[in-house]
Design a protein that fits this description.
This protein is of the alpha/beta class. The chain contains 13 helices and eleven strands. Strands 1, 2, 3, 7 and 8 form a five-stranded parallel β-sheet that branches. Strands 4-6-5-9 form a four-stranded mixed β-sheet. It has a two-stranded antiparallel ribbon with strand order 10-11. The chain binds zinc ion (ZN).
Amino acid sequence: MAFLVLKIDVDTLRGTCEGVPNLIQILRKASAGATFLFSLGPDHTGWAFRRVFQRGFLRKVSRTSVFKHYGIKTLSYGILLPGPDIGTHATSQMRATRASGFEVGIHTWDHVYWQDNARIRERGWTIAQMKKSYARFFEIFGEEPWTHGAAGWQMNEHAFDQLDAWNILYASDGRGYSPYRLMLEGLPLSHVQLPTTLPTLDEVLHRRNVNNVANYLLSLTRDNEADHVFTLHAELEGQKLAPIFERLLAGWRSQGYTLVSMADYYATLNLESLPWHPIAWGKVPGRAGELIIQPG
Ligand SMILES: [Zn+2]
């Protein structure tokens, strides 16, 4: 029986307050496990939105659809309104997620800041950012984080190294096809990477008609031969795109997948047999820029 891991990236205050509770309901109804990865510091979504306008990125996605998914208020954070601190504003929602029995982990401190800078920054900057998210996670949950999934699939060698320093056993920081260990200067890191194997809904939406999105994704998993990691977003599948997510969950169930968290999936792996790969970057259809990828 194959596994389908549900990894939920939570990027914004609105996603944490509105999308996360919706997803908890949907997942419970489907008896599905999942891992929620939180953005724990300031919400600077507005910075990204400004960049989006500057780059003419909206030729692909209409302005109305960006407003529809994210909302005017979220898109103003960091521009018209100061960016609210998600971890202090949404502590109760984060704790409720854990109390509902779902795995929780670190997505990032400041999503936009990390995504725009992480690849090229030095050790000092990297560790300082990561320590902020770690401290906030501990403050909210009263325990050390078990796992990590990088914002925008952006990392650097210091960040991967820091996961080991935190005794993280498994993380999902890039895109790929199967679990592996990273090699840094010829030596394997001890944590296991569980890369996202499927395209995200927004990547598929950039390419296909909305009506086909669920069928297209289900066509990629039809064989039920390999395990998969699917990344979803509280801001999308937890809000306007929830009906598509419910169709996906039902479809994966009927294809024979067990829907699990990262922790449950990690527990099934034969750790001795995992391959090692160096850090690599590459492009993914439907998404701008380069991301951490699994070579091969
Ligand atoms: Zn994210």
